[in-house]
Amino acid sequence: xxxxxxxxxxxxxxxxxxxxxxxxxxxxxxxxxxxxxxxxxxxxxxxxxxxxxxxxxxxxxxxxxxxxxxxxxxxxxxxxxxxxxxxxxxxxxxxxxxxxxxxxxxxxxxxxxxxxxxxxxxxxxxxxxxxxxxxxxxxxxxxxxxxxxxxxxxxxxxxxxxxxxxxxxxxxxxxxxxxxxxxxxxxxxxxxxxxxxxxxxxxxxxxxxxxxxxxxxxxxxxxxxxxxxxxxxxxxxxxxxxxxxxxxxxxxxxxxxxxxxxxxxxxxxxxxxxxxxxxxxxxxxxxxxxxxxxxxxxxxxxxxxxxxxxxxxxxxxxxxxxxxxxxxxxxxxxxxxxxxxxxxxxxxxxxxxxxxxxxxxxxxxxxxxxxxxxxxxxxxxxxxxxxxxxxxxxxxxxxxxxxxxxxxxxxxxxxxxxxxxxxxxxxxxxxxxxxxxxxxxxxxxxxxxxxxxxxxxxxxxxxxxxxxxxxxxxxxx
Length: 477
Fold this sequence. Notes:
Elements (H helix, E strand, L loop, with lengths): L5 H18 L11 H17 L6 H4 L8 H9 L2 H14 L7 H25 L2 H5 L19 H26 L4 H5 L2 H24 L4 H42 L6 H15 L4 H13 L9 H4 L7 H7 L2 H9 L8 H7 L20 H16 L10 H11 L6 H14 L50
Pfam families: HD_5 (PF13487)
Organism: Streptomyces agglomeratus
InterPro entries: Cyclic_di-GMP/3'3'-cGAMP_PDE, HD/PDEase_dom, HD_domain, HD_GYP_dom, HDIG_dom
């Protein structure tokens, strides 16, 4: 957060004053607040947030909704509005904050949650949520009354929606004043992102409130909170692992792009084309993701090829070509130990094999070539032909498709070519200008270099645009 503007300071001060007005009535004599219930809920709320400050649990309590809200939602359903607002304050003040200034952010969060809880509790009370839970108004101890299902879902759902509306309104306001974002940008998408996670945690809060009112009392409510907390932790672990996978992929691709400046963006586009083919073939989602990885990393073995060969001006000698043709094996060795790649590793090794057995590195033919490799081979050739290179301009999509169809059955699997053709007819191919399309400040493509340094053959059998270049069997990006 940049230095707070006058407008942001005034906005935060107004929200703080409003939150104080909402919580102070709970402290007045004769307010009728069930302090035992309020104190237990406030302690639980603060305890969950304190756990969130432990490094191994930070993501668990902050998944989706931004905090661990079931306890707060239970307070909304069980307590009068001023007491529900007060319950939110201790947890917000001790909660995990990553960015500075931490004190300001904690105070802001406390005021924001207090206002949201106060509004949600008013909505719940207006719809007789306390009576629908079973028990006396204000949550005065356990009761033998049975909750009024399904009606109780109405006040609970309305309270969650009101909570989300207040949070998003206040979040948008702070973005507009503190971050100086335009009003339309500040509020765009906030509510849609807020509602689903809050609905899930609101349901857990409803179950907590029902058990709290049951003959078993507050202790039983922990049986809802514990599995909810564990599920959040597992979900956070999954996302951390996925983020680590993505970071690994990005690092490898960036290394390749830095080494071979004439193929930047190519790997990402091959990944996208591979996904289009996979979806057209009806593959399961986990295999689609694997194919995306395969497409993105298919040329990672170039890291093992001398840079002078990748950037050489002029034709390659047979010896130099043989060195470059080792890049699939280099790539396979590099990713051998990355377990989450699965079938993608075989695609990295075999994406230059040809259906007629004339490819490399092992001369596999037909069904011997792994399915992932056959998909990536088509995606690789298609993007290479439709991208501007140092030695020629990009071909039109229709021309590239005709070339793929001409080579289907000899170099490419006809089924993969047909899948890409159908996908292109359905979705089109929109390639943004990337750094492999080198331009001068006026937007002109530079003249061709003396020879191929980024890939003879582009993965196709005989690319017509490669005038004066030796057409070796399928050396490509």
